[in-house]
Amino acid sequence: MLGLRPADADAVGTADGPLTARDAARAVETELGRVLDEALRRALDTDPVFARDIAGRVVSLVLRGGKRLRAAFAWCGWRAAGGSGDFTPVLRTGAALELLQAGALIHDDVMDGSPLRRGAPAVHVELSRLHGAARMAGSSAAFGTSAAVLAGDLALAWADDLLTETALGSPYGPQLHREWRAVREEMVAGQYRDLHAQATGASGVDEAVTVATLKSALYTVERPLALGASLAGADAPVRDALCAAGRCAGLAFQLRDDLIGAFGDPALTGKPADDDLRTRKLTYLLAVGSRLAETSGDREASDALAPGAPRASDEDVRRMRAALERTGARAAVDAKITELAVTSLGHFDRTGADPVVRREFTALVERACGVAPQRTGEAA
């Protein structure tokens, strides 16, 4: 336990000092435990089989890990907007964001056919095995897919319930709900644009940025910052600065994820390292690689990175990685991540946040993007 002060404390902190974003992320773990215990009890009252197979797997996924970055960014948004006193609504909003992410991950794994999530079989894979073990008639894969859709729906419903309860108890509930409504719609739009890009063989950089922004950047950083700021009654200039900071940091986060998806170690990431390449999914990395290959006249790289081609073999994936290195795409994306992270810090500074909060935001951006950004004018 963190030794949190009572809800009516004059200052935000633990019994030993100010509460940091990292403390807040850990406190969200405690809040999630309470929320999920209650949700699982309700599920058991509804039906024990549903509770065991569906609700229990959602609980397991949520508690199995994750960096809790969204919860930490919500905390930073609240503090940047002058939040103080009772921080319970911020923790509950952070918990709702974690549930929202769980639902999105479950559905995303189904759509992408990803076998792993957080170092364990994805929910649809677990449920397929459950079907096979039960020796029921029909396709175990179809059963796993259908049941996983329900599991994702349940996580989203729990997220909505928690956010609604928080909004109803807050004087800033209407603004909180508007931000929540926006993030849900943006997530769906992003998932669809991802599917649409794959179906149409899109390869443009602008299209890749649109998908990355809608599908990940907004709900990873921008909206969490705005949700936290809403709970502090942020004015328009502060909210605008936070949204600009969040969009840049969120896009940098997704570009880093693209690099990890192409070159990462599954033992460290807990998910396959070649899914995006194998399916030739439109990412900023792949789009930049295709553009650089075309510009330089590298026909071999253009062919290797071509969108819409059949599912890549192991040898095709090797050639794609080599092409991304040879064309300079990997280095270009790395440089873009650093540029976006630095720009994000500049936008955040416009909030007038306390230096302590600025340092915490910088540390969060470093964790999210895998770089150590420095504000313009700082010594190297």
Automatic annotation (TrEMBL):
Keywords: Magnesium, Metal-binding, Transferase. It comes from the Bacteria. Its cofactor is Mg(2+). The keyword Magnesium applies. InterPro entries: Isoprenoid_synthase_dom_sf (IPR008949), Polyprenyl_synt (IPR000092), Polyprenyl_synt_CS (IPR033749). It holds the Pfam family polyprenyl_synt. One of its GO terms (molecular function) is metal ion binding. One of its GO terms (biological process) is isoprenoid biosynthetic process. CDD domains: Trans_IPPS_HT (cd00685). Belongs to the FPP/GGPP synthase family. This is Polyprenyl synthetase family protein.
